[in-house]
Amino acid sequence: MSAGSLGNVALSQLEHLLRLFTTGGLAAPLSHAALQARGLGPCWSELAWLADLDSKSVQAVLQVAIAERTTRPVPRLELVWTGPEAKVSPARDTAVVLRQLFGQARSSVLVAGFSFSSGADIFQPLFEVMRDHAVDASVFLHIDDLPGLPPDESAKRGIDRFLRDNWPFGPPTPTVYYDPRTVAAGSSINLHAKCVVVDARWSLVGSANFTHNAHVRNIEVGVLIEDASFATALIQQWRGLIDARLVTGVV
């Protein structure tokens, strides 16, 4: 049997299936026909692997899956905003949220952005936690190709410019990553993502770049997510690029 994912089955369907097994409405081995007869036929592709288990094992698997679903903390979501707004607004200011996120970091920070400028004020709290708490920081940034220069030189100049304009503090400095495709001659590819992940717990995802305008003048929207599972998945997405050598890192 091919293994499906219980994560793709609704909680109500898992609970219904467990009731059927505990009350004798279903028994091992599980079959497609039996599921269809009880209105669960569309779930077969995700549940087929349970046909290899006895009834007690199926019940144990379902109980664990249901417990994980029902006891996992609900993610905390906050609206983050730059720009004009009504007098009464639930949104938090982009610049304030970002400074607080950097300041509370104690283990790791991941930053990805398309545009960076005048970043001394933005990144001051990040530098301080790197210096005082040995926080590990990674920055994924977009670098344009420079006409007439080889890609490696374009990348070097782009990183030098980023550090000069946004990191005047000196060491420690973050590890900087870039997508080699963006510095290829005539490239139209962008690293356009904007996100921050702190301590594999808090994630800020939105439209704002790391610039004065994006934090003060523009209209920008984002969401601050407090959820370790989401943060870990987002980190793994970027780390996957590193492991596959799809981005290049410079310390």
The H-and-E topology, N to C, reads as: HHHHEEHEHEHEEEHEHE
Number of domains: 2
Q: CATH fold name of the largest domain, please? A: Endonuclease, Chain A
Mean pLDDT, rounded to whole units?
90
Strand content: 15-25%
Given the structure, what is the number of helices? Answer: 9
Q: Tally of extended strands?
A: 9
User: Can you tell me the CATH superfamily of the largest domain?
Assistant: Endonuclease Chain A
Helix content: 40-55%
Structural class: alpha/beta
CATH architect. name of the largest domain:
2-Layer Sandwich
Any overview of this molecule?
The protein folds into two domains: 6-71, no CATH class; 76-250, Endonuclease Chain A (Endonuclease, Chain A), CATH 3.30.870.10. Strand 4, helix 7 and strand 5 (175-178) form a beta-alpha-beta unit. It has helices at 11-22, 32-37, 44-47, 55-71, 94-104, 120-133, 151-166, 212-216, 228-243, and strands at 76-82, 92-93, 108-113, 136-141, 175-178, 195-198, 202-206, 220-226, 248-250. A nine-stranded mixed β-sheet has the order 2-1-8-7-6-3-4-5-9, with helices on both faces. The protein has 251 residues and is an alpha/beta fold. The model has no long low-confidence stretch (mean pLDDT 90). The chain contains nine helices and nine strands.
